[in-house]
Amino acid sequence: MSTNNKDVEMQKLVEPASSEAPSAPVTKPPSSGGSGKAVSSCALYSFCSVSMVLVNKSLASSYNHLIDGDLNILLVVIQAVVAVVAVEFCKKMKWVEYPTFNMATAKQWAPVNIMFCGMLFTGMASLQHNSVPMVTVFKNITNIVVSVGDYYCFGNTVEGLVIMAFGLMLAGALLAARNDVAITGMGLFWMISNCCTTAGYILYMKFATKNVKLSKFGMVFYNNVLCTVFLLPVTLVNGEMSLFLKTEAIHNFDYGWKNFFAGFVGFFLNFASLNCVSNTGPTTYAIVGSMNKIPIAFLGWYLFNAVITSQTWFFIAVSMCGGFLYSYAKIRASKKKSKERLG
């Protein structure tokens, strides 16, 4: 059919008959699908994130006493390789679709992994030079930095109640850390570096999910391929690979199976993270990440007999209040937008 014929047919459909009065436009109420998507993507991300921490905790509690050092980066590489195998298997089975590896696309996605590697290294260095409570304080400051970046980079406004929620969570972390306020210049440097790389990672991930023309599973593929490329040489330089090869006590089926399962969970976590930041935004993604510490604390106590101190109880209570306030602020803002559309 020619273009002109199509235009004529479309004109017949659009133009009302001369004998009939044009019908009044009908205003449709906004669909609740968007909010449902946001809630489900946050829930999936939270579930996968908590599961990943618990699986790695299980690995650490079972095998760390057999290893003379740590294999943190090597475990990330192993889990990335498993995730690549999983997503490629799904592609072979025709369950998902994404294009074959392309260097131009890899270059577009590479900053996400560079920021991730920076976040990983600076996070480890922060824990070496600072107490856990002080690192928690800066994690809450990172949420504020992400929110500011979200406003300047993507134009997402920050409601007053959201600022109150941030302030409440930060105040709670500061009060919980009041007995561990000691900080060195080197410790401050690494915490600021971690704050910047974490915020950069979350914000660029949002940019990449909007601008890189890939399905979510294609993003999972590139994310894990590039993670392996960047981090595998590091394990050779820092001695983790040689330590792994020399430690025969962990060369067994159980250790391999647990790492494979962790990689499988990592595959879902990758998808859930990208889905969450795409459907909600960097600020909500960061807040959900902070709130994940609450179920992790309870499950750690139940499964691994971890001690919950009075400081931790206080932090949990304040974090929950901050999380509820943030949720209420977002629900109120969503209702306000719906009214504006209808009005």
Description:
By secondary structure, the chain is mainly α. It is built from 13 helices and no strands. The protein has helices at residues 3-14, 33-63, 72-92, 103-129, 132-154, 160-176, 185-211, 216-237, 240-246, 253-279, 282-291, 293-304, 310-342. The two termini are 42 Å apart.
- Which word captures the global form? globular
Largest sheet: none
Q: Bin the strand percentage.
A: under 5%
Helical segment count:
13
Which stretches are low in confidence, meaning pLDDT under 50 for 5 or more residues running?
A: 1-31
Order of helices and strands: HHHHHHHHHHHHH
Mean pLDDT value: 81
Helix content: over 70%
Give the termini separation: 42 Å
Primary descriptors:
mainly alpha; 0% strand
Short account of what is shown:
The protein is mostly helical and 343 residues long. Helix content is 78%, strand content 0%.
